[in-house]
Every structure is written in structure tokens, then in C-alpha cells.
Design goal:
The complex is a heterodimer.
Chain A lengths: L8 E8 L6 H11 L5 H14 L14 H6 L6 E6 L3 E7 L7 H8 L4 E7 L6 H12 L4 E7 L8 H18 L4 E6 L23 H7 L12 E3 L2 E3 L14 E5 L4 E3 L3 E5 L3 E9 L7 E3 L3 E6 L10 E4 L5 E12 L10 E6 L2 E14 L6 E2 L9 E14 L10 E5 L6 E7 L16
Parallel strand pairs in A: 1-3, 1-4, 4-5, 5-6
Antiparallel strand pairs in A: 2-3, 7-15, 8-9, 9-14, 10-13, 11-12, 11-15, 12-14, 16-20, 16-22, 17-18, 17-21, 18-19, 18-20, 21-22
Helix pairs in contact in A: 5-6
Chain B lengths: L7 H19 L3 E4 L4 H14 L8 E5 L5 H13 L4 E5 H7 L15 H12 L3 E3 L16 E4 L27 E4 L7 H10 L11 E8 L2 E4 L24 E8 L10 E3 L5 H10 L17 H8 L3
Parallel strand pairs in B: 1-2, 1-4, 2-3, 4-6
Antiparallel strand pairs in B: 5-6, 7-8, 7-9, 9-10
Helix pairs in contact in B: 1-2, 2-6, 6-7
Classes of the chains: A alpha+beta, B alpha/beta.
Chain lengths: ~450, ~300
């Protein structure tokens, strides 16, 4: 290893498709062909193949880690896998395809840059395909790939591939949120167009699936427009041996949006006080500027009363600031959501009491249209209005995935019952006294 | 590549720092599990980055089987002192004396016995959260685990009923008696750990580097020959873990790739003398890190079963 070694980017992707579309097989194939499978893992696979698989090695067993999964041949929960190539590192969320496990897909998709939706070439576009595309769009994943799998079972038919592609392109405009969309004909089982080009698809120009995810541009996936710094932990040394630290009062956290610079004018919400950035403190020395998603400790010029849950924001653009919120939620609990219930709402570093004041509608996955509904069952997605005990400092989810998201937690059981994505604020925060500072 | 973009190590670092600060903010009495191994060494550096210039606001906890490599213990104690942290050590032997655990007949490995000792320490100090260095790439049951892994009042992990973990919004809420295990290195690989150790110039125990050692061959692995038995009135703690007449043994140039204790750690033949050598070796390795752990070979679900019972 030389110091001249190029920096390696990390891309997070999730795979989705319905049962038996071959998600786990695809990941197994990526691991296998990129030589990320080790001999002892292969031995274990071969052992179980001899015992239970009639001698056929099952690549899906690489990711299906729980006993019940191997027994039932299904993927129960999100499994994370790690693949490294000389060009990039990948974190793979293998998310199950069963309807009842939509919540796991939302989990895997929430942190992904890219979504791979598997389509079985024999079955074409089905409700699951639409649902997974919709969830990928809803969760704000910038890049999407439709991997048309099992092409070997339709004789590598270009016509079939085009038909599926057109079927997807017919509904994509309704989602209209992706930075880029790719269609790739593959066979995960046999490896065609996954890592190496297949000579069985002369009509397909490329790229291979791995070639695409190694090169897709992800540098601009984080929000760098408008500083958002949710204060996570107040950093105040108790008994500093260094006298210079006696007055140290830092605000530690992860930048959730934008860029922060020394000297920059900032606003602290909810108090509305203004100050300037005195220092960007880090263990490795002070920085002149820092950006999302770096973790830093900020010191302000003024000694303000600030605690966890407050947000330090830049003046342009200003965020929303309200206790009346509207957004979409994916419901994740067997007990359905009905209007009028109270929950804890965690947003950024703040947890507040919240009430779902109304359930406006439920999304129909055939049409992507909202339908009237009296409750949201597990794995439903719907429009809600929420009132919180304290105002939130937030952005619309489409502008910022970190400041536009929340979860609901049920009091008592402490179950995480919903993932929420906020609509853009109707109006942004209005400073009461523009020139006022303490 | 724009200048406002993090490389993969910087991304993993900021993610882990965020997790550590969430723990400090959300829990009353958290602890860091610190064994002196390479993963927990990274955790300590990340804790420095998360909390300095303040003190690291949680004690370190280590559960000893009694079969530890002496080099590891020495390193662990020294590192904790350098960082000014409180180190709590609880041992399987103490647990025998207190009746918290009983020796398993015919079983020399005390790997399983760490479970009641850990749960005993959680109870004794009322820890509501333990931070561990486990990684999802280590083992396939771990691949399914959350950053914030909920344990019920019996310390059990229920893999089929885990809390959904969405964005970076970790649900840390507990009822009395319940516990959280938090894994800031969830998304790190073995290579990432060594690259981070190199980047941060972290010291690691010298048994990670090539050295000469007397080893013997058992169940497909080269195990270290335990230290000589000193007659002190007590039974030999390594009874059953010493080479028999039939077992091949020799001095070899070797190192550890992962550390459990002397009974569960397979040595690998290796000339790796420095971090760069180790990184190259890991990159070229054709077996997983845990392939050298005797404790994981018990069955395909060995880790899943131990985690359900309250293991790290």
C-alpha cells in the first residue's frame, strides 16, 4: 500500500424483488465473482449442499444467516453484506420481498444510494415491482437499477426484455424522483452481465451490473445546501487538566446538511438566537470548514443556552419550524395506525411527544394514488398529519433525507412503529427580530 | 471527486462517532466492552474522537475467561490507564466462586461461560447499554444484527423481532431491566479495521504480529501451547487444553488474526511483521477471520444460539 493510493468511495445499495426473484442469489453471485467469498464459507456451503441441497451449491445460503431462513429457504430480515472491488466498497442491504416485510425494505432503503429492483423475466412487472420502485422513490434513493433476472429462462429474448422495460417506463414518470435509471438483463444464477459481459445478450450494450455500480456518480448524494446541525451532545470537560479547557463549551454532532465555516453567522433553533461559528473543533485539530455528514464539535462566539435536540442552522435557506407537520409514513407494526394516538417522535437528535391528528389517505400501489382510509395496517404507506408537543426544525424529505425524516415509537412497548418522511414546510422559519442578537 | 466528499474510512468513522454520541446522550449508564483486541482498539479511538476534549463518559468492561493471552491483558490495562478510563474486569473464576456460573463437565473452553459473567456485570453495575466491537462481516448471524441491538430482561436477542432501524434514527428506549448492545463498527470489514489502525497509527498487542511460538495441532487448527502449570493447590486451568502425546506440536512463526482466549484462538503461520503486511495478508486471505475461531466451529448456528442466550 502506498500513500498515493486513491481514495475509495463507499456506495450503499439495497436489493429488492419478490420471493424467488433471486436477490440472495444475486448478492451471492456478486460476492462469488468479485472473490469476496472465502474458502471456509464455500466449504460450509458445499457441506450444506451435500446434506440438504442434493449437491447443488445454493448461493442464497451465503446471506441467509438465521436458522429459520435456511430451513424455510427465505430471507426474514435485512442482511448486510460487504463487497470490495479495486474501484469501490459496497454495503449491501439484502431486503426480503414478501409483502409482509415491506418494513424491512424501507429499513434497507433508508440509507441506500442505489436500489436494485429484481424483475423475474418470466413474470414481468408485478405489483411487487411497482411497490419496490415506489418505496425506492419514496425513500429518496437517487439511483435505481432494474435487473431483469432469469433471462436464461426466457431464452435471452431481447423482445421480452424490451417489453418489461417499457412496462416499467410506463409508470416511472409518476415517481419522477430518480437521478438515473438503468435496465440490465442478467442471470444471477449463471452470472451473465453481473460481473462479466455475457455473449448471450449481443443486443445489450452494457454496462454489467457491477460495472454500473462501480462507476455511477454518487459524490453529490449528500445535501450540501443549507447548514443543518442537530446538537447531539454538549461537550463540556468536567475537570480539565488543561487550563485552556476551563471555558470549553462545545456542541457535538453530525452535520445533517450543508457546509459550516468558521465565522459563519448561524441561528439556533428553537430559541431563535443568532451567533457565529468560533471554532470547528475535532480530535484531529481545528477545521476551517466541515460538511455533511462529518461529525464535529462546534463552538459559538456567544455563550448561549443550547442543549441536545436544538438545531444550529445557516441563514439561507432557512428550515421549516413547526409543531404541525404533514408527511408520509410507512407503518411497521401489527397494531394498525388510527388517528388520535400518541407516540414518541424521534427526529434528528430530538424526541418529542406527538399525536397523529389525522390519517388523510393510504397509497394504492396499483395506481400510486392516495385512497381514503380509516387505518394503516402493517406495511401500508399513507399520508398523515401530526402535531408535536414542541416544534421541529425540519426540511422536506426530498430536500434532505436526514432533517426530513422521523420515526414513531410506541409508548410502553417501545416498538418502532413507523418511518416518516416530511413534506416540505408550508413556510420557513421567520426570525422575529432580524438584527437582534444576544 | 469534489472536495466535499468523504472516502470510505471517513464515512465509517463519522457513522461510528454519531452512534457513540447517541449512546452517551440516550443512556444513563453505558459501558464499553474493551478486550484489548483490534476492534475494541478502534472503538476507543472513535470514543476519543466522539468525546474529547471531555473524558470518555463511560467505563470499560472486560470479561475474562482465565485463559487470556498475557500480552493482551498487559495491553488492555495499559491502554485503559493511558486514556484515563475506569476499567472493570469480571472473571469466570469469580463467577464460579459466587455461584453465578458452574463449570461445564468435560468442557475446557469457557467461551459460553462468559455469558453469565457479562449478564452478572450488567446487573451489578446496572449498565443499560454495552458498546461492543462486533462487525456484521464477521459472521452471518451478526450480518442481521442492528447497530442498537435490543436485549430483553434475560439478556436475550430475538432475531425475528428486531426493531426496524431507519436512517440514523436509533430507538434507544428501554424498560427497566432491559438492555441495549450497541455496535458502532457494524458496517466495518476486517480490512477497514486494519486500514483505520494504520491511518490512526494505533498500537495493537504484539501477538497480532509474527512471532515464534510453541503450537500444537488440534481439530484442523494450530493452537498455542498454554503456559506451564504452576502447582498452587488449584486444578490446572488448562486441563484438557494441553497437547496430548499423539498431537503434533512444533515451534512456528505465527500470529493471531482474531483473538478469543488461548483455548479458542487458532494461530496462523505468517511472516507479517507490520500493519502493511497484515493488510496485504487480509486482502489475499481465502478464509474468513472467524475461520480461525474454534468457538464458531461448533455448528452453523453457533453464533446465533450464543447471541440469543445473551452473548456479545
Amino acid at each position: 500500500m502506498s500513500d498515493a493510493q486513491q481514495t475509495i468511495e463507499l456506495l450503499r445499495f439495497n436489493t429488492c424483488g419478490s420471493v424467488d426473484d433471486g436477490k440472495s442469489t444475486l448478492i451471492g453471485r456478486l460476492l462469488y465473482d468479485s472473490k469476496s467469498i472465502m474458502e471456509d464459507q464455500m466449504e460450509a456451503l458445499e457441506r450444506s449442499a451435500d446434506i440438504t441441497g442434493g449437491g447443488q451449491v445454493n448461493l442464497a445460503n451465503l446471506t441467509d444467516g438465521l436458522r429459520a431462513e435456511r430451513e424455510q429457504g427465505i430471507t426474514i430480515d435485512v442482511a448486510y453484506r460487504y463487497v470490495a472491488t479495486p474501484k469501490r466498497k459496497f454495503i449491501v442491504a439484502d431486503t426480503p420481498g414478501h409483502v409482509e416485510y415491506t418494513r424491512n425494505m424501507v429499513t434497507g432503503a433508508s440509507t441506500a444510494n442505489l436500489s436494485i429492483v429484481l424483475v423475474d423475466a418470466r413474470n414481468g412487472v408485478i405489483e411487487q415491482t411497482r411497490r419496490h420502485s415506489y418505496i425506492s422513490a419514496l425513500l429518496g434513493i437517487p439511483h435505481i437499477v432494474f435487473a431483469v433476472n432469469k433471462m436464461d429462462l426466457v431464452d435471452w429474448s431481447e423482445e421480452r426484455f424490451r417489453e418489461i422495460r417499457e412496462g416499467i417506463e410506463a409508470f416511472l414518470p409518476k415517481l419522477n424522483l430518480f437521478k438515473d435509471v438503468k435496465f440490465i438483463p442478467i442471470s444471477a444464477l449463471e452470472g451473465d452481465n453481473v460481473v462479466t459481459f455475457s455473449d448471450r445478450t449481443p443486443w445489450y450494450e452494457g454496462p454489467t451490473l457491477l460495472g454500473h455500480i462501480e462507476s455511477v456518480h454518487i459524490a453529490s448524494d449528500w445535501n450540501l445546501n443549507g447548514l443543518r446541525f442537530p446538537v447531539q451532545w454538549v461537550n463540556r470537560p468536567n475537570n480539565p487538566t488543561d487550563p485552556a479547557l476551563h471555558d470549553f463549551r462545545g456542541l457535538s454532532g453530525q452535520i445533517a446538511g450543508g457546509i459550516v465555516k468558521v465565522g459563519q453567522e448561524v441561528l439556533v433553533l428553537p430559541s431563535g438566537q443568532k451567533s457565529r461559528i468560533q471554532e470547528i473543533w475535532t480530535y484531529d485539530g481545528p477545521l476551517e470548514e466541515a460538511f455533511c455528514p462529518q461529525s464535529v464539535t462546534l463552538r459559538l462566539e456567544d455563550d448561549l443556552d443550547i442543549s441536545r435536540g436544538d438545531t444550529i442552522v445557516g441563514l439561507d435557506p432557512l428550515p421549516g419550524h413547526s409543531a404541525e407537520l404533514a408527511g408520509r409514513v410507512c407503518w411497521m407494526n401489527p397494531r394498525p395506525l388510527t388517528a388520535g394516538k400518541k407516540y414518541f417522535l424521534k427526529h434528528g437528535t430530538q424526541t418529542v411527544q406527538a399525536m397523529v391528528t389525522s390519517l388523510e389517505s393510504r397509497i394504492d400501489f396499483e395506481t400510486f394514488e392516495p385512497k381514503e382510509a380509516s387505518e394503516l395496517a402493517m406495511n401500508d404507506i399513507g399520508e398523515v398529519r401530526i402535531r408535536t408537543a414542541k416544534p421541529l426544525t425540519y426540511d422536506g424529505y426530498t430536500a434532505n433525507r436526514l432533517t426530513g425524516s422521523f420515526v414513531l415509537v410506541e409508548p410502553g412497548t417501545n416498538a418502532t412503529v413507523a418511518a416518516g418522511m416530511l413534506h416540505p414546510p408550508a413556510q420557513t422559519y421567520k426570525p422575529e427580530y432580524t438584527d437582534f442578537s444576544i | 471527486m469534489s472536495s466535499y466528499h468523504l472516502d470510505h474510512l471517513a464515512y465509517l468513522e463519522t457513522e461510528a462517532i454519531h452512534v457513540l454520541r447517541e449512546v452517551a446522550a440516550e443512556f444513563e449508564r453505558p459501558a464499553v466492552l474493551f478486550s484489548g483486541g483490534k476492534d475494541s482498539i478502534c472503538i476507543l479511538r472513535l470514543a476519543e474522537k466522539a468525546f474529547r476534549p471531555s473524558e470518555i463518559p463511560m467505563p470499560f468492561l472486560n470479561v475474562e475467561t482465565g485463559h487470556e493471552f498475557p500480552e493482551l491483558i498487559e495491553f488492555r490495562d495499559r491502554r485503559a490507564e493511558e486514556l484515563g478510563a475506569k476499567l472493570i474486569v469480571r472473571t469466570v473464576d469469580e463467577a464460579f466462586e459466587k455461584g453465578l456460573a458452574t463449570p461445564t463437565p468435560g468442557q475446557v473452553s469457557r467461551n459460553q461461560l462468559q455469558i453469565p459473567v457479562l449478564l452478572g456485570a450488567i446487573e451489578e453495575f446496572q449498565f443499560d447499554c454495552c458498546i461492543g466491537g462486533a462487525r456484521r462481516d464477521e459472521e452471518k448471524a451478526r450480518a442481521k444484527e442492528r447497530f442498537f441491538s435490543f436485549r430483553d430482561a434475560f439478556g436475550q436477542w430475538d432475531p425475528k423481532n428486531q426493531r426496524p432501524e431507519i436512517w440514523n434514527l436509533y430507538n434507544a428506549r428501554l424498560n427497566p431491566g432491559e438492555n441495549m448492545r450497541v455496535f458502532p463498527l457494524s458496517n466495518w470489514t476486517e480490512t477497514d479495521v486494519w486500514e483505520y489502525i494504520k491511518k490512526e497509527e494505533l498500537e495493537v498487542p504484539n501477538i497480532y504480529f509474527s512471532h515464534e511460538r510453541e503450537c500444537f495441532h488440534r481439530a484442523g487448527q494450530w493452537l498455542p501451547v498454554p503456559p506451564a502449570y504452576e502447582a498452587n493447590g488449584k486444578a490446572d486451568p488448562y486441563e484438557g487444553a494441553r497437547p496430548t502425546e499423539q498431537e503434533e506440536h512444533r515451534r512456528m512463526i505465527c500470529r493471531v488474526r482474531t483473538i478469543a482466549d488461548m483455548i479458542s484462538t487458532g494461530m496462523i503461520e505468517s511472516p507479517a511483521e507490520n500493519i502493511d503486511d497484515i493488510i496485504s495478508e487480509v486482502a489475499a486471505a481465502r478464509v474468513t477471520e472467524r475461520g480461525t475461531r474454534a468457538d464458531d466451529k461448533a455448528s452453523e448456528a453457533a453464533m446465533e444460539d450464543r447471541k440469543k442466550a445473551g452473548y456479545f
